[in-house]
Amino acid sequence: MWYNDRVGSTDPSTAGEPLYALFEDGGIAVARSSWNTNATVWSFKSAKPVGGHDHPDQNNFVISNGANHLIVDEGYTYNKVTINHNLILVDGIGQIGEGQVWLPSSVGNQTGNIVRFIPMNGTYYIQGQAALSYNNVNDFTRHQVFITKPSDVIVSHDRVSLTSQRTVDSFLHTKGVGSLNATGDNQFIIKYGASYMTVQLFNYSMINNTIESQLYIPELTPQGKYNPNMNTSYPYGQALRTTLQKTTGYDLVTVMIPYTTGMSIPNVTKNNIGVNLSWKDGTNTTVLFGNSISYANVVWSGQAAIINTGSWTFLQGLELTWNGFSLSSNDSIDVIGNITGTRMTVSVTVVNDISLTLNFGSKAVLNSVPTFDGTVMLPKGQHVLQVNAETSAPTPTPAPTTSSPNPTTTKAPATTSPTTGVPVTTASPGSTNSPTTGPEVTTNAPSVTPQNPTVTVPGTPTPTLNNASALLPSVMLILIVMVFY
Fold it and tell me: What CA–CA distance (Å, rounded) separates 148 from 142?
């Protein structure tokens, strides 16, 4: 790369540069909340190891706010070990191939994978699978949602299934000694530079949290000099270790809120197997996990769902029931759109040719054509379904102009890369109104309380959808509700 000092600088926000990118070969997704200097940047990795300089770190992630690193990696170390990343250990053992200077090329079959990455107008959803990177692990699915409006929130969910009863440790790493402190039961605060991050853990079995100092053996000393004998450890920061004793599987939900003084941040409350996020401007977001969710007048059978004041996003599902009406599919579909008490306008993204069974009487319009009860064949692609429960013949309206690439399907853990060509959507900076008075977030009930959903978690993971992408139209208000195991 050559530097040309005659080329002037360009503001990426005015140049229309995208706020996210997916790097297929490396299995890395990156997104930021804005191009402002205090923006939050989130990155997630899950890929097929290539050996050499690679690390045993599939399903790892990092988060920074402005110039301040909040959830971090250890940097480049001599021995590559999983404990130095924001990952899990099973009976004290990390991913296959760890503990060596060079990750052996033989671990290439012990792969991680980004199963799906979906940007949605300032909200980003990712699903990673890293079961094959461990021994004695049947499933290690990590779902994360990065919300940037009204302000930045990252909701992470780990679904872990083991071959037998074992002890699991989950880690979050911070930079700087004294940067991590407990503020309450399963609540913590991270401070680095001028940035803060609240961390709240929600688990549905017994957990034990400890804050530990982390010592690494880097190739460079803290003074930037070469470390010749590679035997001297240096303090790098602190780690939050969450331990689950003698478990065959668990769900761990972690809510991380990065911010600076004066920013509006949401209250967080537990909601069955999920969380409610409530901002002072009246925005309410509910994030749920399971394989079946009942919320208001909607029942959704699927792996994830997103809801916000009539705006819904369902991910990877088979059946939707609403007001006594229903649709069902013989294969997984994505549903995005608006649902109220009497009206529904949703886009249905189909990843393979499917049969869709409708039970809406004469009240439905599919792809601008009135549709009656029965089974229709839908080719892969995006379709628009409109239902007006108040009338017998809804009037078709123009379909959304957004498009999404055609993904493929596979069962977890997947071994293929995600698709490219996702439409670019530029998100706006987070709101800075309703300032807080301190670095801690309260756990009082929100001023506007969402309806409580009911979530059922089955015992067997469902097949996952590989490489799906969808983009919610910019006119819609996003709320993410993810449904897991």
Answer: 20
